[in-house]
Amino acid sequence: MAMVEVSFPGGKKVDAHMKGFTIHTDQPVAAEGENSAPSPFDLFLASIATCAGIYAVSFCQSKELSTEGLKLELDGERDSETGLIGKMTLSLALPEGFPDKYKKAMQKSMELCTVKKHLANPPSFEMKLI
């Protein structure tokens, strides 16, 4: 059984089915879609941010620290030659009173993100027609 199965419900919509969930995607109107769901690239960016986010919230929970006010933002800078994002910055707003002694550990925790690790050590890709 495949890790992800993809279906095509119409137009530019492409849905991913995995682990009992359906993840809907669509393209913006400018790309001939209906903008009814995030684009696959939007989900890619969200997967990086939410992956780092789960490590951040888990760190706080493991230390019994408040997560009130915890906020993570991802920004990217596009490479002018390739048009691809060449640099991503994840900025984490810490809760008020977050202990200084845990700041480096929090940053190291976020760097454990599995999605980020896959980007740093990308898998090979094989496209097969069956």
Automatic annotation (TrEMBL):
Keywords: Ribonucleoprotein, Ribosomal protein, Transferase
Pfam families noted in UniProt: OsmC (PF02566)
Highest taxon in the source lineage: Bacteria
Keyword field contains Cell membrane: no
GO CC aspect terms: ribosome
Keyword Flavoprotein included in the entry's annotation: no
GO MF annotations in UniProt: transferase activity
InterPro entries referenced in this protein's UniProt entry, alphabetically: KH_dom-like_a/b, OsmC/Ohr_fam, OsmC/Ohrsf
UniProt-recorded name of the protein: Ribosomal protein S12 methylthiotransferase accessory factor
Organism: Tindallia californiensis
